[in-house]
């Protein structure tokens, strides 16, 4: 019963402990870890595509992926926006006036996300060849997942955040908790509409925008259809936040940050900084750190 939980938590914890040593003694290793992590993301997405291509009744499964991903995205994103708007009204985030810089090219940022879709499509096309070696892709995915989680553990520790710093940043913690809870409520709603078990909805909602991790974890637990749906749900969240940040950040600062989910610590940070000023950076890092920590823990919990 607890084997799946152990597979997720053990490499994560070992990586976190090793990350502490690297952070203190071997900072040049951080660049290597970052490159390896990026490489593993693409490898895992290719393996996901291969597994998807090997499914029986493929055309119906592709329609199911579209239906699941769209429903989960709409339910989770709308509930997120409502909860974050209420937070902005209840606890306005007042800052000194600042000149909003021109944000990074949203087209360029979107293209980075499209590359990830390209890796999934490449794997899908490779899987259609039905090469005999591809039937070991499930086992390869499990091995790649363990290594990815190990690298994620290292990255979580080496980003310079510790538990004390996280808890002391009240604003970042409150926004992260609001996003975490409202996402789970959206996941329950989506599961109800789709006729899926509540735990499945909670697991998919726990991705918090971290598509590269949520996709493979859900695939291992529930199969390639729901795994692919989780991937596209979280990817759509990222693309939507890129579009909305410049429009919302001056009046609804907490909402703009919360919509980015776990990506506020890395991918979305440049656009948050340019549109919201330097003062948003510490809050964004804490917010992203908390959600990045919750993602593997909650998915492990809800997939048992």
Features:
304 residues, mainly alpha
Q: What is the topology?
A:
Blueprint: H1 3-25, H2 29-53, H3 58-90, H4 106-127, H5 137-158, H6 163-168, H7 170-194, H8 198-205, H9 211-222, H10 224-248, H11 253-259, H12 269-276, H13 280-302
Protein described:
The mean pLDDT is 81. 46% of the residues are buried. The chain has 13 helices and no strands. It is an all-alpha fold and 304 residues long. The longest helix has 33 residues, at 58-90. Helix 2 (29-53) crosses helix 10 (224-248), helix 5 (137-158) runs antiparallel to helix 9 and helix 7 packs across helix 11. The protein has helices at 3-25, 29-53, 58-90, 106-127, 137-158, 163-168, 170-194, 198-205, 211-222, 224-248, 253-259, 269-276, 280-302.
Compact overview of the structure:
With 304 residues, this protein is mainly α. It is 79% helix and 0% strand.
Q: Pairing-aware structural class of the strands and helices?
A: mainly alpha
Largest sheet: none
Shape: globular
Spell out the helices and strands N to C. Answer: HHHHHHHHHHHHH
- Report Rg: 19 Å
Average pLDDT number: 81
- Total of helices: 13
Helix content: over 70%
pLDDT below 50 for ≥5 consecutive residues: which ranges? none
Structure summary, number of beta strands: 0
End-to-end separation: 7 Å
Beta content comes to under 5%
């Amino acid at each position: 019963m607890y084997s799946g939980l152990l597979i997720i938590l053990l490499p994560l914890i070992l990586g976190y402990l090793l990350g502490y040593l690297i952070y203190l003694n071997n900072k040049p290793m951080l660049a290597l870890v970052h490159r390896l992590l990026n490489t593993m993301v693409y490898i895992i997405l290719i393996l996901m595509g291969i597994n998807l291509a090997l499914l029986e009744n493929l055309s119906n499964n592709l329609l199911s992926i579209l239906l699941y991903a769209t429903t989960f995205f709409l339910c989770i994103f709308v509930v997120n926006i409502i909860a974050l708007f209420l937070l902005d009204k209840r606890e306005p985030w007042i800052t000194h006036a600042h000149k909003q810089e021109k944000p990074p090219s949203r087209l360029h940022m979107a293209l980075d996300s499209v590359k990830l879709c390209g890796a999934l499509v490449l794997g899908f096309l490779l899987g259609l060849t039905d090469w005999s070696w591809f039937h070991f892709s499930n086992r390869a995915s499990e091995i790649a997942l363990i290594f990815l989680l190990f690298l994620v553990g290292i990255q979580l520790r080496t980003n310079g955040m510790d538990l004390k710093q996280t808890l002391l940043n009240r604003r970042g913690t409150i926004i992260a908790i609001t996003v975490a809870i409202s996402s789970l409520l959206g996941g329950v709603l989506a599961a109800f509409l789709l006729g899926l078990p509540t735990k499945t909805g909670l697991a998919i909602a726990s991705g918090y925008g971290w598509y590269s991790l949520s996709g493979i974890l859900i695939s291992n637990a529930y199969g390639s259809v729901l795994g692919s749906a989780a991937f596209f749900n979280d990817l759509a969240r990222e693309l939507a936040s890129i579009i909305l940040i410049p429009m919302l950040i001056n009046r609804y600062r907490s909402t703009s940050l919360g919509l980015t989910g776990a990506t506020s610590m890395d991918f979305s940070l440049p656009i948050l900084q340019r549109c919201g000023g330097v003062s948003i950076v510490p809050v964004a890092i804490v917010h992203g750190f908390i959600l990045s920590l919750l993602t593997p823990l909650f998915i492990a919990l809800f997939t048992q």
